[in-house]
Design brief:
Layout (H helix, E strand, L loop, with lengths): L1 E2 L5 E2 L6 E5 L4 H12 L3 E6 L2 H14 L2 E6 L7 H10 L6 E4 L14 H28 L4 E6 L12 H20 L5 E7 L24 H13 L4 E3 L3 H12 L1 H8 L3 H8 L6
Parallel strand pairs: 3-4, 3-6, 4-5, 6-7, 7-8, 8-9
Antiparallel strand pairs: 1-2
Helix pairs in contact: 1-2, 1-6, 3-4, 4-5, 7-8
The structure holds NADP nicotinamide-adenine-dinucleotide phosphate.
Length: about 280
């Protein structure tokens, strides 16, 4: 990162070779375009080849370089295949674990296949991908950035999001532990905790501002992410101010949150019971 006149660091990604999982749409696509505008050379990963190709065109227009890999990240050999493709032609010093899915609803009503789909994509895949790519990140002479996308639910686990909360608090815990393990290695571990963000993922949720799910445009979320990376931050929370108080209460007195949520429980269950992006 290079210094600005005001002392903040501009995120200069020229010459950086990176991977964005779920780079074809949503938050991943917006991150890819923001990184491209800073000169990054990216491998875009996801299942839908058409979305990846469309994003790759826009990455090039924005000033970056793009390759695509169409793959289901829950396949057993996905981490090896992504790493092999990423390392083609050089090392990797920028890695974004973004791909994710959600199935909300009362725990006993969530199908086992959906439980496994969330655990596999949101938790197992980023752990295995990170494990596979870490030697290259550590070998980078200019340091590396590892970014994972948790969720506001990783800071405030909510009812009817039990399994999703397990994956997102799990990813946050993975990052805290790994950051401590990687101290002095030059690998900057950053975690993004987006609140509700206006992407395909939220299309089937009926929960809005009154239940604490006021949605932010994806470009605002990614603008906050870039500014936080420029400041060298590790923990990046893009939740709306209306959600922050409850997040703080969960940190200081988690049981008090139960009582705050209780009066709206039935309304919340109804609003999120069809929320599914798998
Ligand atoms: N939107 C929100 O409100 C919100 C809030 C907090 C956290 N997040 C987190 O932010 C991340 C991105 O979410 P989003 O809102 O952009 O979601 P989205 O619009 O549903 O996009 C999901 C992305 O993941 C990819 N993906 C899904 N299943 C995959 C699989 N099995 N293998 C490979 N790629 C797969 C999708 O590409 P293909 O379909 O082409 O595979 C797509 O690029 C997720 O980790 C999510 O949990 C989102």
């Amino acid at each position: 990162m290079s210094e600005n006149r005001d002392g903040a660091s501009a995120l200069d990604l020229r010459g950086r070779r990176g991977v964005v999982t779920g780079g074809g749409r949503g938050i991943g696509r917006a991150i890819a375009l923001a990184f491209a505008a800073r000169g990054a050379d990216l491998l875009l990963v996801g299942r839908d080849a058409g979305n990846l190709a469309a994003t790759a065109v826009d990455v090039r227009i924005a000033g970056g370089i793009a390759r695509e890999l169409a793959i289901d990240l829950t396949e057993p050999d996905a981490a090896e295949r992504v790493t092999e493709a990423a390392l083609e032609g050089g090392g990797v010093d920028l890695f974004v674990n973004n791909a994710g899915n959600v199935r909300a609803g009362r725990l006993e009503r969530i199908e086992e296949a959906d439980v496994r789909a969330m655990l596999e994509l949101n938790l197992v895949a980023p752990v295995l991908l990170t494990r596979a790519v870490l030697p290259s990140l550590k070998a980078s002479p200019r340091g590396a950035i590892l970014l994972g996308i948790s969720s506001g639910i990783g800071l405030l686990p909510l009812p009817f999001y039990t399994v999703y909360a397990a994956t997102k608090t799990g990813l946050a815990g993975f990052h805290h532990a790994l950051r401590r393990e990687l101290v002095d290695t030059g690998v900057h571990v950053a975690t993004l905790y987006p609140g509700a963000t206006d992407t395909d993922m939220m299309a089937s949720s009926q929960a809005g501002e009154s239940l604490g799910f006021g949605r932010r445009p994806v470009h605002d979320v990614v603008a906050d992410l870039i500014a936080a990376l420029e400041r060298g931050e590790h923990e990046i929370n893009t939740a709306l101010p209306t959600r922050r108080g409850m997040q703080e209460l969960h940190r200081s007195d988690p049981v008090a949150v139960d009582a705050r949520l209780a009066p709206n429980l039935a309304e919340m269950e109804q609003a999120v019971s069809a929320h599914r992006s798998i």
